[in-house]
Amino acid sequence: xxxxxxxxxxxxxxxxxxxxxxxxxxxxxxxxxxxxxxxxxxxxxxxxxxxxxxxxxxxxxxxxxxxxxxxxxxxxxxxxxxxxxxxxxxxxxxxxxxxxxxxxxxxxxxxxxxxxxxxxxxxxxxxxxxxxxxxxxxxxxxxxxxxxxxxxxxxxxxxxxxxxxxxxxxxxxxxxxxxxxxxxxxxxxxxx
Length: 192
Prior knowledge:
two-stranded antiparallel sheet; 77% helix; globular; mainly alpha; 7 helices
């Protein structure tokens, strides 16, 4: 008998489905005008909220599945990486910063795979949660700077604030990487 997908997993899949629409509207420059980045921002916020909801629902109602454990972090990475790559294309984020952030995600994902082979679960750390919060905030601000210009003199305040938050996210990305590796270095030394 075929099992139905539970609500948290449906929310995760909904987040994945939203990503192409988010990318389309964020990069759309023909026929949509200034509304396109606003639509992209709304999609990004809705997708981010599904991330909060799916985990809470899964834990509260004991609906945690292997599919969810795999797809939820993957959906998060796809959403954030898609946004950051689009912001590079829009010249709102430096490519080297985005490369560092994405490289960290690949390293931690690989690290978690090694740990899983040894039946070790690596939980999200406080630094990782801070990193994610600041990445999301930076993305929101930088998308906002595509739609609105709040200037003081010649300075776009929203863009500058987005850059500051992005640099904080970068620092937290590096700290969280070091924290994961230091706390779980025994995983790398495990022998089969």
